[in-house]
Amino acid sequence: xxxxxxxxxxxxxxxxxxxxxxxxxxxxxxxxxxxxxxxxxxxxxxxxxxxxxxxxxxxxxxxxxxxxxxxxxxxxxxxxxxxxxxxxxxxxxxxxxxxxxxx
Length: 103
Fold this sequence. Notes:
By secondary structure, this protein is mostly helical. The protein has helices at residues 2-5, 20-36, 41-48, 61-65, 70-77, 90-102; strands at 6-8, 14-17. It contains six helices and two strands.
């Protein structure tokens, strides 16, 4: 669902969000899955890091921030994650950058 909602380059960097409601729903679903994920906060963080979160720019962020449920889902998941898990991994750093920008 996430891949269908965005335009990405050959390096999987998100160039544009094509369908904001679909993208927001995909993120909300990932956050709900991570919340239910058995294991430690580091495990949940690693799970979220399996998705490509790298954006070319933050131009779509104000529109995304207004998508119903996205702020709540990100606010709910952030305290359940380990910010030090995979601190060297680009996708995890990109997720935190995205979540922090929205929240």
